[in-house]
Write a structure and sequence with these properties.
alpha/beta; Rossmann fold; two-stranded parallel ribbon; about 25% strand; globular
């Protein structure tokens, strides 16, 4: 985006610190700790939101995204959506139900994988309209059973925060073992990714 600028936000200070890699070529990109459900930024022409499946209050998230959009602007969202195949997060929640993991008593599900068909109604509640969308079945091959748990350990912070440090490897291994039965082989991560473009509903209707 040579003529514009990009601001990336994430509620995790650790993620923001990792994103701030020194690079003299990226002078129009900045990062800050923030939450899409509480953000207040000046209106912009384009808003890109990823990983909104970690935001439980979808309606509030889209209202704040819409508020940060110019009247003629557009929104691009990309995140893991729901489908017939259990996600690795679904598997993790199933593992927490085992009596072995009593530390998860009262643990609230930290994600939401909405059905793609639910997005239009969520968008309308924020005066947005879905103008294009697609769902892609993606896969990442980590190459080995050994490499995959390392990635899961980083991404499962909501779960591992409840488990004693000494028990984290055992919890992750149990999730990975069960997940392997879903995807068919070790080291493979599969997910349904929804990508959608939205615009302000009033602007969309005027151009129909």
């Amino acid at each position: 985006m040579p003529a514009g600028s990009v601001l990336g936000i994430d509620p995790s200070p650790r993620m923001i610190e990792a994103a701030r890699t020194p690079d003299d070529q990226l002078t129009n990109i900045d990062f800050g700790v923030g939450d899409v459900t509480t953000m207040t930024f000046p209106a912009t022409s384009t808003s890109l939101s990823r990983s909104t499946h970690w935001v439980l209050d979808q309606e509030t998230a889209y209202r704040h995204i819409a508020a940060a959009l110019e009247p003629s602007g557009r929104v691009l969202v990309q995140y893991v959506c729901g489908g017939s195949r259990p996600s690795i997060e679904n598997i993790a929640m199933a593992v927490t139900d085992d009596v072995r993991w009593s530390a998860f008593a009262g643990f609230a599900c930290p994600f939401v994988h909405i059905d793609p068909g639910a997005l239009p109604s969520i968008a309308v509640s924020a005066d947005l309209e879905v103008t294009a969308h697609s769902v892609t079945d993606r896969e990442w091959d980590f190459g080995s059973r050994k490499a995959f748990p390392r990635w899961c350990t980083v991404g499962f912070a909501d779960w591992t925060a409840r488990v004693p440090a000494a028990d984290i490897p055992a919890f992750i291994d149990e999730v990975v073992d069960r997940y392997e039965a879903v995807v068919g082989r070790p080291g493979l991560f599969r997910f349904l990714q929804l990508r959608a473009e939205l615009s302000r509903r009033t602007a969309f209707l005027e151009h129909r």
